[in-house]
Amino acid sequence: MKPIPGIRILLVDDEPHILQFLELGLVNEGFEIRTAPDGMTAITLAQQFNPHIVILDVMMPGMDGFEVCRMLKKSGSEVAVIMLTAKDEVDDRVKGLTIGADDYLVKPFSFDELLARIRARLRNQFPMMFGEVAIGPFKIDDRRKEIIYNGQVLELSPTEYELLKYMVTNHGIVLSKATILDKVWGYDFGGEENIVEVYVRSLRDKLGDKEHQLIRTLRGAGYRIDLS
What we know:
Elements: E1 8-12, H1 16-28, E2 32-36, H2 39-49, E3 53-57, H3 65-74, E4 80-85, H4 90-98, E5 103-106, H5 111-125, E6 132-135, E7 138-141, E8 146-149, E9 152-153, H6 158-169, H7 177-185, H8 194-207, E10 215-218, E11 222-225
Parallel strand pairs: 1-2, 1-3, 3-4, 4-5
Antiparallel strand pairs: 6-7, 7-8, 8-9, 10-11
Helix pairs in contact: 2-3, 6-7, 6-8
């Protein structure tokens, strides 16, 4: 797999030589890397760095990897977590997967194996970073920031693009205004929820959805895109 620009990986381990080894190898593969020597630093860095993948050691003093994973997943971000454990015990693996970890590796491991796990997680959880994705009548190209609907390229502002992409990739699911604001505008957005209505109205115009059959409004609940 060719390097994909903009992939961010956070490495969390209390052993400096492991951090250095992984950082050097992953930087050479074209990834953007940050490192954290403990759990609290990892949580702070994750909020600032917004990584696609966190490679997380289980056994750390203070806040262990399980608690870090739990907090990362609770934040609602789409981050993929690969946990590292020095013990090949089923209980550790089950606990990690139960709290939301996406994969695990047992130490010692080969760098090539870690790289393969990273690539698998990227393809599974961030498929749009690999080019055009077809979803019903939509084609979304995240690298070009372009959405095609029924063969026609839509003229979208950056925010319209992010909103439509979010709604299409979550088609069939009711999305509240609060959820949309958090995912599209960001958790620190200080404006009114009515901004969502304004953008949905604009998207309906551009999609020719006069009857609201594509983007449906569910009173008191939010919006849902129906593709069937």
